Amino acid sequence: MSKNVGLIKIKGKVGDLSFYQSKGKNLVRMASTVEKGRIMKDPAYKRTRENMAEFGASARIGKSFRNCFGIFAKRFGDENYIGRITGLMREIISNGSGRRGERVFEVVANKEILEGFEFNPNDKLQNFFSPPFTLTANAARNELTLNVPVFNTDMWMSAPEGATHFSLICIASVLSDFAGTRVKKKYEPAEPLLNELSAYQISAAIETSGLTTAPVSLTAVLPGAPAMTGNVGLLAAVGIEFYQEINGEMFILATDNALKKLLKFFDSV
User: Fold this and answer.
1) 250 is in which domain, residue-wise?
2) Are residue 99 and residue 8 in the same domain, yes or no?
3) Strands 165-176 and 198-202, bridge-based pairing
4) Do 147 and 134 form a contact (C-beta atoms < 8 A)?
5) Cβ count near 257 (within 10 Å)
6) What's the number of domains the chain is made of?
């Protein structure tokens, strides 16, 4: 990939060259000689259209996946988390049944691909927090409970420099299956009323050192007590957020917070 290093920054096409920006850099590549209209209609580009449809679906479902975790997505994600999520969605679509360009996205059937996803591989939950804990869902799969027994912070935690307190976060969210539609020519959720439902609970601030904690129990309850179907999965996540106490006020540290998004996946109890 060539770079545009001139004093004048150009965007758009000049002859056979296409100038654009990506991640703050000015780049240049050979412009495509194939018109969009031909790509969308010419039988020779059928495979290209199928790939475009499934890539677009991966981005669409990836956004839905991120929306499941609301503010925590941006707060805990590294600079590449969006691309990594899109890649997972593409892998799942590739496993789906149906015609190319319309293959279904099935959540439950591909839960192994999603489980264990880290928003930031460099700030893993276990790097900071390692006591045993359990995640359980109720029979209806619309409540998620995190239980952490008594533990000593000096033995089971490694807090970042400057942190005086931490909070644990329990998140429950719903992701639906998706399918391509020929009429709308895009992917839609099988359960639109359930898709992206989410809830979370955050613990009170706990000191990072010199403390044997009380048991921690957090329950995230999905709004409206929804009736879950086989076309959705309940996504379970645990996060940790660090603070620095200054004059009695808690300030969130800008770095070293962690969220393991799919620590567990509930398709049944």
Assistant:
1) 39-266
2) no
3) antiparallel
4) yes
5) 25
6) 2
pTM over 0.70: yes
Together in a domain, 26 and 55: no
pLDDT tens for 12-58 read: 565 556 666 776 676 666 556 566 666 565 566 567 777 777 888 89
The helix (run of H) or strand (run of E) holding residue 260 is strand 258-266
**Residue 102, number of CB atoms within 10 A of its CB:** 19
8 and 91 belong to one structural domain: no
Reading the block at residue 229, the tokens are 């179907």
Query: What integer pLDDT is reported at residue 16 of this predicted model?
Result: 53
User: DSSP states of 170-208 as a string?
Assistant: EEEEEEE-EEEETTTTEEEESSTTTTT-EEEEEPPPEES
